[in-house]
Amino acid sequence: xxxxxxxxxxxxxxxxxxxxxxxxxxxxxxxxxxxxxxxxxxxxxxxxxxxxxxxxxxxxxxxxxxxxxxxxxxxxxxxxxxxxxxxxxxxxxxxxxxxxxxxxxxxxxxxxxxxxxxxxxxxxxxxxxxxxxxxxxxxxxxxxxxxxxxxxxxxxxxxxxxxxxxxxxxxxxxxxxxxxxxxxxxxx
Length: 188
Prior knowledge:
It is built from 6 helices and 7 strands, in the order βαβββααβααββα. Helix 2 crosses helix 3 (91-97). The protein has one domain: CATH 3.40.33.10. A hairpin with a 2-residue loop joins strand 6 and strand 7 (154-164). The chain is globular. Helix content is 36%, strand content 24%. The strands form 2 sheets. Strands 1-5-7-6-4 form a 5-stranded mixed β-sheet, sandwiched between helices. The protein is α+β, with helices and mostly antiparallel strands. It comes from Mucilaginibacter robiniae.
């Protein structure tokens, strides 16, 4: 019997470095995930003992898919299972390096679910929705975008949410006004 593991983490705030090669999933893979997740987000659900109200649908983001794909392949290649890469990179490091940036934004939120051993989209998604922490990531209304990858039954689901400054805030910034932006800390 294969061991099945799932782990979730949320990080608010973040930084990034550079963009590189992308592994593209099929349209069917993307749609299967988006359909399953967005049906639940539209209805709302219970995550453990916490009711999560309906949330807007997630859209696919290629940069988040690149981050997810790199991490799934790295875990497979080096035979580990963790949100922290063997070289010490965090989820925020990987997502930023894949090109998902926060510079010039009013708000930036990222999160990640990982799993190992599940054989299908249905099985991994059901496991994440049955786990309170993973379910809360999936239902988090601050997340607007998602990228998912599977490699040799290592599954990585990266989430993001970015909010830009309004036109009036942009004008204030251009005129030299200071705008205070509060950054939230890591939340597990």
